[in-house]
Design brief:
Blueprint (H helix, E strand, L loop, with lengths): L3 E5 L3 E2 L6 H19 L3 E9 L3 H9 L4 H18 L6 E4 L3 H16 L3 E11 L4 E3 L5 E2 L5 E2 L7 E10 L5 H10 L4 E2 L1 H12 L5 E2 L1 E2 L7 E2 L2 E6 L1 H6 L1 H4 L18 E6 L3 H14 L7 E5 L2 E3 L14 H8 L1 H11 L6 E3 L1 H30 L12 H22 L3 H22 L1 H7 L1 H21 L5 H10 L9 H5 L21
Parallel strand pairs: 1-3, 1-15, 2-3, 3-4, 10-16, 15-16, 17-18
Antiparallel strand pairs: 5-6, 5-9, 7-8, 9-11, 12-14, 13-14
Helix pairs in contact: 2-3, 5-6, 10-11, 11-12, 12-14, 12-16, 13-14, 13-16, 14-16, 15-16, 16-17
The structure holds 5'-O-[(L-methionyl)-sulphamoyl]adenosine.
5'-O-[(L-methionyl)-sulphamoyl]adenosine binds next to strand 2, helix 1, helix 7 and strand 15.
Length: about 500
């Protein structure tokens, strides 16, 4: 693996405001970006907004606005959300930007020059909601004879002049790609679904539209605009100037690209996108990971059910880091999950307040009160202190493999198992009794506990960056970007504690 690591979220449709699904993809991607930086990689993290297509044009019409006006307003809301979620993204790309339009046109020209595109007429089903063409066999027939997508969305029957991409000619090459690169698509279950889909035979793909005009004009025929997915997918390469003849220093990131997407858009990323790139004789991403979907208190989330979860409301009520922790810990990344207030409250009260918060509070207030806030030095590295150090090293050794495999939730479990060990160590030694009986051991226990609190503060950094900084500050460390290895060597002994306070507040149901 090269030192450079480029990770992306999908770019979000701007027809409406953000919901929990957007927040989830973004927070999980941010976790991986932050983690890889801590591992010493040169990370680039991109997110952004998807602004063309019929869905956006219709949303603008229904509000009596020009499409670009709506895009400007809503893209701003998504951009603000990156700050609200404390994302560490390096770029925010919009598909209405010139750099994106140029890149999308470049890809079109290359496909055209290589004879991968031909003019025809599309007749068939189209979902405006998913901006996707459907075969009838992939739709669900309703009792009234109409058809809907598997997620219940409406489809329209359309007939229009269109350019087609010769997708059907690429099945073997795609299957070969999946075979030679078993990690290209994960999780495995999703990879198998994609393979089945390709094995069942691919149709040529309609890649231009003529019945509306909110899109990028194809550079070879001005009567057509590009199909919004062909346009949108190029954003990943455009953010690092890969789709043009004069690349710049950012283009090297294209050597190691990971796309994080929701399961609903895996086909577009794992079938269409690599095929466009192969057909244009360009380099492919390294990995595509599909995460699951959230339901709300057991129900599918949908606008018509009126149960869309607004991430801002949750953050205002429960706190950003608490929300981030819940999203990442509650459900194994890749699985579907259910959002419930009780589950969120339980996680906050048990994992954050009881496990982590109390450990810090109990040990640090003791230092504050009994030692004038000065963290003592370790004088005796006995078996128990060595055991804690080994537990830390085990996390350092195992974590890279886990995160390369997108097992965020297992990483968090490992860190919390460590917190459990430190809590046990503290409780077993009962420093509150040791103070009078054995002063040396009293100091040693507080020192070893604080040393582990420092390690924990670093371990939680990609999950809860604010709480990580807050905790480090309490133990006298000003946060600067360090790698895990450097962090482990940061000295905490002799530091003065500042403002020991509860990291998390208990939440009432
Ligand atoms: N614009 C396309 C992506 C183009 S990428 C070149 C798109 N946008 S989206 O705004 O509809 O969705 C973005 C992400 O939100 C997807 O990864 C999708 O899976 C995710 N989610 C939408 N609803 C979700 C849940 N209920 N739960 C989890 N994630 C879900 O698709």
């Amino acid at each position: 693996m090269t030192d450079k690591y480029y990770i992306t979220t999908p770019i979000y449709y701007v027809n409406d405001k953000p919901h929990i699904g957007h927040a989830y993809t973004s927070v999980a991607t941010d976790f991986i970006a932050r983690f890889m930086r801590l591992k010493g990689h040169d990370v680039r993290f991109q997110t952004g907004t998807d602004e063309h297509g019929l869905k956006i044009q219709k949303a603008a019409e229904s509000k009596g606005k020009e499409p670009l006006e709506l895009c400007d307003e809503n893209s701003r809301i998504f951009r603000d959300l990156t700050t609200t979620l404390d994302l560490s993204n390096d770029d925010f790309i919009r598909t209405t930007e010139q750099r994106h339009i140029d890149g999308a046109s470049f890809l079109w020209k290359r496909l055209h020059e290589r004879n991968q595109i031909y003019l025809g007429e599309y007749t068939g089903w189209y979902s405006i909601n998913d901006e996707t063409f459907y075969n009838e066999k992939d739709l669900v027939k309703q009792s009234d004879g109409s058809f809907r997508t598997v997620t219940g969305g409406p489809v329209d029957w359309i007939t229009e002049k269109s350019y087609f991409f010769k997708l059907s000619e690429w099945s073997d090459k795609l299957l070969d790609l999946y075979k030679k690169n078993p990690d290209f698509i994960s999780p495995r279950s999703k990879r198998n679904e994609v393979i089945k889909f390709v094995e069942s035979g691919l149709n040529d793909l309609s890649v231009s539209r003529t019945s509306f005009n909110w899109g990028i004009k194809t550079p070879t025929d001005n009567d057509h605009i590009m199909y919004v997915w062909l346009d949108a997918l190029t954003c990943y390469a455009n953010g690092v100037s890969y789709l043009n003849d004069s690349k710049n220093e950012l283009s090297d990131y294209w050597n190691n690209v990971v796309h994080i997407v929701g399961k609903d858009i895996l086909r577009h990323h794992a079938v269409y996108w690599p095929t466009f790139l192969m057909a244009a004789e360009l380099d492919l991403p390294k990995k595509i990971f599909a995460h699951g979907w959230w339901t709300n208190e057991g129900n599918k989330i949908s606008k018509s059910l009126g149960n869309v979860i607004d991430p801002i409301e949750i953050i205002d009520k429960y706190g950003l880091d608490q929300f981030r922790y819940f999203l990442l810990r509650e459900v194994p990344f890749g699985n579907d999950g259910d959002f419930s207030k009780i589950a969120l409250i339980n996680r906050i009260n048990s994992d954050l307040v009881n496990d982590l918060g109390n450990l810090c509070q109990r040990s640090l207030t003791m230092i504050e009160k009994k030692l004038d806030s000065i963290i003592p030095n370790i004088t005796n590295n006995g078996n128990d202190e060595i055991m804690l150090q080994e537990s830390t090293e085990m996390i350092l050794n195992k974590s890279f493999e886990l995160i390369e495999d997108f097992k965020i939730h297992d990483y968090i479990k490992l860190v919390w198992a460590h917190i459990g060990k430190v809590n046990k160590y503290f409780n077993d030694y009962k420093p509150w009794e040791l103070e009078k009986e054995n002063k040396e051991m009293f100091l040693n226990v507080l020192a070893a506990t604080t040393e582990q609190i420092k390690n924990i503060a670093y371990f939680i950094n990609p999950i809860m960056p604010n709480k990580s900084r807050e905790l480090l500050k309490i133990i006298g460390i000003d946060y600067v970007d360090l790698t895990f290895d450097e962090m482990m060597r940061v000295n905490v002994f002799g530091n003065k504690l500042s403002n020991v306070s509860h990291l998390f507040s208990r939440v009432q149901e």
